[in-house]
Amino acid sequence: MPELPEVETTCRGIAPHLIGKQISRFVVNNASLRWPVPKHLKKTLAEQTVCNVTRRAKYLLVTLGNGTLIIHLGMSGSLRLASPGEARLKHDHIELHMDNGLCLRYCDPRRFGCWLWTTDNPGQHPLLAHLGPEPLGRQFSAKYLFTQLQNRKQPIKTLVMDNHIVVGVGNIYANEALFMAGIHPMRQGGSLTLEECRLLTKEIKAIMASAISQGGTTLRDFVGGDGKPGYFAQELMVYGRGKESCKHCASDLQEIRLGQRTTVFCPTCQS
After folding, report:
1. Is 203 a catalytic residue?
2. Fewest CB within 10 A of the end CB: N or C in the chain?
3. Residue 212 pLDDT > 50
4. How far is CA 214 from CA 207, 208, 228, in A?
5. Are residues 110 and 173 in the same domain?
6. pLDDT tens readout for residues 78-136
7. Domain, as residue range, for 240
8. Catalytic residue at 261?
9. Which of 56, 58, 80, 157 is the catalytic position?
10. Can you tell me the distance from the alpha carbon of 15 to that of 84, in angstroms, rounded to the nearest whole number?
11. Based on the structure, what is the number of domains in the chain?
12. Which of 2, 122, 135, 155 is labelled catalytic?
């Protein structure tokens, strides 16, 4: 699944090619995504100019003069910029043709993503209204996290992946941040001290910022919006390395299932 750094990479990759450009055509090759693509979009988007392209959590927001497209990449979705005449791929379900000749194509083999529309403040849309703060924002602080964790008995890894607490910290980055902070993923959230929350927020911010700067993590289905894959995967310390040696202490990394997600940790460094 594309995580926040991948979505931010996509946002930064496509924005310069869309902002200020006019939509010439909106083509839907397959409307059966997580929710059906609204039928009115072909007319609604015609000749509209893109005012901005931003991100909230894992949602891409394409702001036009008459409303906002809300795009989610789902489990396997990707956006890429195609040149005029470039052949369409098998799972290219949506095409946003621009007046500069480029075409923004949405490819999604598993079709769990979405393209929705709102004429209201997108922040008040039901999908976005109850989201927690951005991990790189000032609101996500040690004090904030410590307050959110009070009396919580769930594992800390589950809690930092809860979008109501903080958005976008997916499985890869939760594993990595907890390792770097030296916190066992099964620790009850409410047991963390303020100092441990300081360490954890610091590592989450550092890892997310590093991943964004390097173009996101290269995974099987992800391609950046500029057609270039990310390169953060080569720097992963624990994720995907179960039973291998810890890069810090040489202990065997342990792999368990937590909340139906693969969780890898070092029993020594995260004791």
Report:
1. no
2. C
3. yes
4. 11, 10, 11
5. no
6. 999 988 888 999 999 999 999 999 999 999 999 999 999 999 999 999 999 999 999 99
7. 142-265
8. yes
9. 58
10. 18
11. 2
12. 2
